[in-house]
Specification:
The protein has 315 residues and is of the alpha+beta class. It folds into 2 domains: 91 residues, DNA-3-methyladenine glycosylase AlkA, N-terminal domain (TATA-Binding Protein, 2-Layer Sandwich), CATH 3.30.310; 167 residues, Endonuclease III, domain 1, CATH 1.10.340.
């Protein structure tokens, strides 16, 4: 067994994420994660390993205590930490954002309840993209999560933890061996199968550079990823939020004169008309967000999720 500690930049309250089911996969039960830890397969170089992470609960001195049933080398732990840092957002420093949004009419009221929130992502952009493509346009999220799990089970490496099989996320070289109709039998449409396989092929050929997309300017990321078959403008904006960066861009995406996507939601939240707000007016709305657009949007998303839960409990 291997054990190590992964520190996070404060403030970080990972326990806030347990209320947001969208952050977790089919096999996770957020209600048990508090005591049992967060367990998932982690890519470490050429192989996948099982890692369980426990959060120490200290918002100002946050740490994740990680363990694997395998004996890992120092290099493998470093590779695992790269994935874990992206999943938990440990390297995101949101402290400047807190100072900027004290007077923001939309975000300021959310600071107390969501202090220390950081988004969760997956181990890499390809995992996030596969998840997004499969779940796209599916309103029943448990079914969507099950489909993602079944694709992982079919094409990823199977690992065993506490007597249970846990499928790793398939890598591009594993998915290029698939065919769209085989994926169709697992639930996703044939076209979604084509999109996933096509993206895997483009990564292996070098047409898509995941490392570049992870680090490039938000606008460049958007313009590049939205051209990937099966992604498009709305998914491009969503995927931008999961990178190891605090910034993002929300370009206008109008169809028949009607604004779409995250930009529409932001403008409505600030009391504007999404279809008539100019670019200058939009930038004034989110002036406090500058450099922290992805993190600011996540505060709005988490607040919406919690508000919807509260409504359901009252009804």
């Amino acid at each position: 067994m291997s054990s190590w500690t992964l520190p996070s930049t404060p403030p970080h309250d990972w326990f806030l994420c347990l209320d947001i089911e969208q952050y977790f996969d089919h096999e996770h039960d957020p209600e048990t994660v508090f005591e049992d830890g967060f367990t998932r397969p982690i890519p470490a170089g050429d192989r996948d390993i099982i890692v369980t992470a426990f959060f120490n609960g200290d918002v100002e001195n946050p740490e994740f205590h990680c363990q694997s049933p395998e004996s890992l080398s120092k290099q493998e732990i470093e590779l695992a930490n790269k994935s874990l840092a992206r999943i938990f957002g440990t390297r995101l420093d949101l402290r400047p954002l807190y100072d900027r949004i004290e007077d923001d009419p939309v975000l300021s009221p959310k600071l107390t309840d969501l202090y220390g929130l950081k988004r969760m992502a997956r181990a890499n952009l390809f995992e996030d993209a596969v998840n997004r493509i499969i779940e796209m346009r599916l309103s029943h999220k448990p079914t969507a999560k099950r489909m993602v799990h079944d694709v992982r089970e079919k094409y990823g490496t199977t690992l065993v933890h506490n007597g249970k099989n846990i499928p790793a996320w398939p890598r591009p070289h594993q998915l290029v061996k698939a065919d769209p109709m085989s994926i169709r039998k697992l639930g996703p449409t044939k076209r979604k199968g084509e999109f996933i396989i096509g993206m895997a092929e483009d990564i292996l050929s070098g047409e898509i550079d995941l490392d570049y997309l992870e680090e490039c300017d938000p606008r460049q990321f958007y313009e590049t990823i939205k051209e990937v078959r099966g992604i498009g403008p709305t998914s491009a904006q969503q995927l931008m939020l999961f990178r190891n960066r605090t910034d993002a861009a929300f370009p206008s995406n109008k169809k028949s004169g009607e604004e779409k996507g995250l930009r529409k939601w932001i403008i409505l939240s600030y009391g504007g008309d999404p279809d008539s707000v100019t670019e200058e007016e939009f930038q004034q709305m989110i002036a406090h967000w500058q450099g922290y657009e992805a993190a600011a949007l996540e505060f709005m998303f988490a607040d919406w999720v919690l508000s919807e839960k509260e409504k359901q409990q009252k009804s």
